[in-house]
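Troubleshooting: if your tokenizer reports a length mismatch, compare your output against this known-good record of 464 residues.
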Amino acid sequence: MKTKIAFRMGAMALAISTPMAFATNGYFTHGVGSHNKAQAGAGLAAPSQAIDAANNPASALLIDDQSNAGLSVFSPRRTHSASASMAQGNGGAFSITTQGEQESGSNYFPIPYYATKWTLGDDSALAFTFYGRGGMNTDWSGGSVNFDMNGDNVADGPFPGTYGAGDAGVDLMQAYIELAYAKRLSDSLVVGIAPVVVIQAFEATGLNNFAPYTKQFVQTFMATGDQMAAFGSVDSLTGNGHEYSTGLGIKIGANFELSDTVSVALAYQPKISMSEFDDYASLFADGGSFDIPASARVGISFQASPNVTLHVDGEKIDYSGVASVSNSGLNLYQCPTAGLGGMNMEACLGGKQGAGFGWDDMSVVKLGATWTMDSMPGTTFRAGFSSGSGPIDNKEVLFNILAPGVMEQHFTFGFARDMGEGSEWGVTIMYAPEETVSGTSMFDPTQTINISMKQYDVEFYYTW
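Known-good structure output:
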């Protein structure tokens, strides 16, 4: 028992030290490390900081022995709105009655990272990295909905909150700890591998009205015929505070120096199986499962001149491999309590095909540049742009009010100042212009819902 308490306290300390909002490419950050973020996540093949081992473990051998520490202030601005409903909650509809734009609270989040690198010999090295990534954070207060509570096809309400159960939102925090080992196999080839420890925390609020659409509700009702008992049995859907989940994975990578001016890098992280969120087993598919999706990256860097290096990278994030993220919210129609003749208990919330956010895989192209000027010795500039395919289909907007991962483009800039003797400080900024996804509500075909977000990020770092 003492060991379990100590472990949970350690996990809490790590997770809380990495408070995250909803990040940028889905719930993956646009980059890891200040130099990488300043280039919109490009530069995999041209590492320059110890933290770059978090992007590609082979990078551990390609940088000087050093330590980095950084802190960003991330500010996502999230809104949603709904058109007027003709149904107004009648005839089985679930209608948002609030007119005008609603804004999520909690708009500023500090996100730290730390890394250090050690040379083991002429052909091998280690790098330790700790960083936060991803998160689905929303905090919706206000708003109201109408729906039929009594089963007579006549609307009741209005009920306060985004989903009629008071303030609503989710909060996902993740901390990553990695120890990369890199080995030179030839003059031009370096490979690397890193175990990846992940600790994540999750909380959901304001989702009580989805209780009849859970697997637990259906099981209890079928066993007892008592609707109140079925409601009472659903204790792992919402409002249970933060719960912690852990997992162990692996990351592999390689860096090829094709010539004195061109290098190519590859990195891959398979899906990481995480322990279930038992306190939210009636929310996430397959009894509370929320794994880390697989991701793959490729990058090429070209030194165009002694002062300029150009980077082109690509990243693929396999959200479709995580059921709780990729399963469609429309799966609820197959749940026996949906009122549409559904017969599949596993399509209910918490089931193996339980409704999720309906996210697609995401592909991102990243362009970056690094340059110095002879007139400003000791100063390095970086800039980047990335563009990706948003993961949210317009049929999935109702659930994705909780997790509006709509961002597609990022513009970044940074500068670094060399202080001598291996020390450096710098600043990185990011702006993601507003993106909006609009679609018909799955529970009210007469109503259109819009979810929008724009983002800002400023990061300060120091290397020694």
